[in-house]
Design a protein that fits this description.
16 helices, seven-stranded mixed β-sheet, four-stranded antiparallel β-sheet, globular, alpha/beta
């Protein structure tokens, strides 16, 4: 059964669900997203996740009984990030975070955390932890490492957590490692949407310095949604036990296969080129915003992230709704500091536009148009003008550009594979 016939049958059988599918497709094709967590999945990964591998039953309660696919995915991600140990069987980053707490923290542990990151995942039995915040200094928007050191020596935290998800700069991981050693703490870095840039060397890697590194395989790596844990070898047994104790039996083979090919893709020249373009596009977006009179914080950016400051009096929620009406998806947030002072911003990313094949000139245009809109009265004419700009930028653009797909020489096995797939559909 070909895809067209299958879709027609599904539409006749379940029109309500089919409408949702078509609506999602229309929305993704007709809008441009600057939200950091929005990015298309690689066609290789998407195919494997929807493949016949999803039919295979797995019941691996013990780490020692890992399947060939789980071992393959774990080995590939270890090689990609040069890590001693890797866990790939967890379904999402929140669950991965809870595994790390289970393995490394103790009841009533103190956690020293950048902007109190990971406090949001501490529910139930993990609510006993005491979180202490460190953050950016409000006058410099940089981290005062001596202040962090004093906090660590004073509180003796069990874990120090750093996550750069809202910070477009690289930090000195080696210095943070020394602070952790001096205070007797574990160092945990959550990469968020920087995972791809770390894997390809465009931003510094925390892996040589951190005890644990976590991230998801989606967004930055174009893979399926799941949670990855990298760790030093000496912590492997603790983390593996916590995985089992928290009920993570396994992922199904289709997801493991999608992960395995994701990590293979991330080592290709095409993905390296994608990451290089991502940084260039973020810098172009930032330049466009500044040319339009919008201040950006913590710049110039060195990764995928741009923080557009919203001047006093602008309602971030209303601005976001108006931009959505024009087909541009953004996310309003507050840039937190070590004090009560915060800065309202739009947290913008070049990840998805780069996946759709936009280049520097496009992102410069997007930045100028967005900056002009932010400073406009946001009337119907402004929304209409922004919508025209968005449509001009994305017209004819794919959700995933073929230029980022590895172009390897294939052996002539495709006919044999197709014949076997036809047997699956009984045709």
């Amino acid at each position: 059964m070909d895809n067209e016939t299958l879709l027609r049958r599904m539409e006749a059988f379940d029109p309500e669900l089919s409408d949702l599918l078509l609506s999602a497709l229309d929305r993704q094709c007709s809008t441009l997203s600057l939200i950091p967590t929005a990015n298309a999945v690689s066609p290789f990964s998407a195919y494997l996740k929807g493949s016949v591998l999803g039919n295979d039953f797995m019941d691996h309660h013990a780490i020692e009984r890992r399947s060939r696919l789980e071992k393959m995915a774990a080995q590939r991600v270890k090689q990609l990030f040069h890590s001693g140990h890797a866990i790939v069987r967890i379904g999402n980053p929140v669950a991965a975070s809870r595994v790390v707490f289970q393995a490394l923290a103790q009841p009533d542990s103190t956690i020293l955390s950048f902007n109190l990151r990971k406090q949001e995942v501490c529910t139930g039995e993990l609510m006993t932890y005491t979180f202490v915040k460190f953050g950016l200094e409000p006058d410099t928007l940089t981290i005062d490492f001596e202040k962090v050191r004093q906090l660590a020596l004073s509180h003796k935290p069990r874990i120090i957590i750093y996550s750069p998800v809202n910070y477009p700069q690289s930090i000195d991981y080696e210095r943070l490692r020394r602070i952790a050693d001096e205070s007797g703490s574990y160092l945990w870095v959550d990469l968020g949407q920087n995972a791809g840039l770390v894997a390809t060397g465009f931003v510094p890697s925390p892996v040589p310095y951190a005890d644990v590194v976590t991230f998801g395989a989606s967004d930055a790596l174009h893979g399926p949604q799941n949670g990855i844990i990298l760790a030093k070898e000496q912590l492997a047994s603790w983390l593996d036990k916590a995985v089992i104790d928290t009920g993570h039996v396994s992922l199904k083979k289709n997801v493991l296969a999608a992960l395995a090919i994701t990590f293979r893709e991330a080592a290709t020249d095409e993905f390296i080129a994608y990451c290089e373009q991502t940084v260039k596009n973020a810098q172009a977006l930032e330049k466009g915003l500044r040319e339009a009179g919008v201040n950006t914080l913590c710049g110039p950016t060195t990764n995928h992230l741009v923080l557009a400051q919203l001047r006093e009096g602008i309602d971030g929620t209303k601005l976001t709704d108006n931009l959505a009406a024009a087909g541009l998806m953004v996310k309003p947030e507050k840039l937190l500091t070590s004090t009560e002072i915060s800065f309202p911003v739009l947290r913008l990313s070049s990840l998805d536009p780069t996946t759709r094949s936009l280049k520097e000139k496009d992102m410069l245009k997007a930045g100028r148009a967005l900056g002009k809109f932010i400073n406009s009265p946001q009337k119907e004419a402004d929304i209409s003008g922004m919508a025209k700009t968005v449509q001009n930028l994305i017209e004819g653009r794919p959700l995933f550009s073929e230029e980022w797909l590895p172009d390897a020489e294939a052996e002539d096995k495709s006919q044999d594979m197709m014949e076997k797939m036809m047997l699956y559909w009984n045709t």
